[in-house]
Amino acid sequence: MAIKILGTGSYVPEKIVTNDDLTKLVDTSDEWIVQRVGVKERHISVNETAADFAIYAAKEALESAGISAEEVDLIIAASVSADSVSPTVAGSVQAAIGASCPAFDINSACSGFLFALDTAVSYIMRGGIRNAIVIGAERMSKIIDWTDRSTCVIFGDGAGAAVVTPGDGYLASKLFTSGSNEVIEIPSYGGDSPFFEGEKKKPYAFMDGQETFKFAVSKMTDDVKLVTEEAGLRLEDIDHVVPHQANIRIIDFASKRLKIPKEKFVVNIERYGNTSAASVAIALDELNKSGRVKRGDIVAMSAFGGGLSSAACIIKW
Ligand code: UT7
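Above: the input record for the complex with oxa(dethia)-CoA. Below: its predicted structure, written as tokens.
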């Protein structure tokens, strides 16, 4: 049904911030971060924006797909940390690569790339779209409170992109939203209107870690089961799982509960941390570049996060 993935790309900024570097900012340790989260280092932007990352990732995805910018009919980007609302991240990519197609952003926090992919699938199924670029791009370092040790050790910056085209590889998908701000909240800049009397919150990511953890484990397990069943497959048929890289312990739990061996999971959290909407997209690109995924392989992708939201899909490569 609907699509196949023609090419992928990704980009992370050059600067690496290690756990030891963070001990100079907050009361933490390499041991705590590695054991409780699984991150050893993350890439942090010095002077590039989420849109810049998206441009690099999209260019690489086009090259990997073997198509030119003129052949792109749609660009959708997902981000919660763009430096400008307009132009959008997708619009910046459109201008930079020299495409002339519609381009717009969506936001569903860490699930954003899979929401964007599902949206692109719907456009392709409607007809008239040949190639779409789907992107997840984040400068999470912009929306982190660098004095809060419960969040600043977790996140990282980067972008991933995929070029999708009509095909028969999107076997099933599920999107989930439970809108509330109790567990995860990312307020945006409150402005300085002299008339506004409402609360102006600090524009930083807030997260109840333990509640998010429980949500994440149950969603990753249930969503992957559900889409596998909907695709008419068994969990044993899955060749690769591309999970959101939020916490290595969440991936371990999911692997045990789904009885899918850990070797089938793409894991890069130790090098990048949690790059929110870019996370699954970067991991997908790494799987593609590794040469481990072959045409016909069954790939499950799963993400969860702010919203609260979750998303999963099954793809035949
Ligand atoms: O992408 C969005 C989705 N996000 C997620 O999926 C995140 C899910 N949650 C998690 O990954 C984990 O809950 C965290 C990594 C955020 C936190 O790990 P935890 O094992 O749940 O720790 P906790 O919040 O229960 O805190 C345990 C202890 C506390 O100290 P006390 O109260 O027991 O003395 C914290 O203050 O660990 C302390 N702590 C830290 N210690 C050293 C919290 N952050 C740190 C830190 N370094 N960076």
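Notes for the reader.
Residues 28, 32-33, 36-37, 110, 149-150, 153-154, 207, 209-210, 212-213, 216, 246-247, 250, 274, 276, 305 surround oxa(dethia)-CoA (CB under 6 Å).
The first helix runs from residue 19 to 22.
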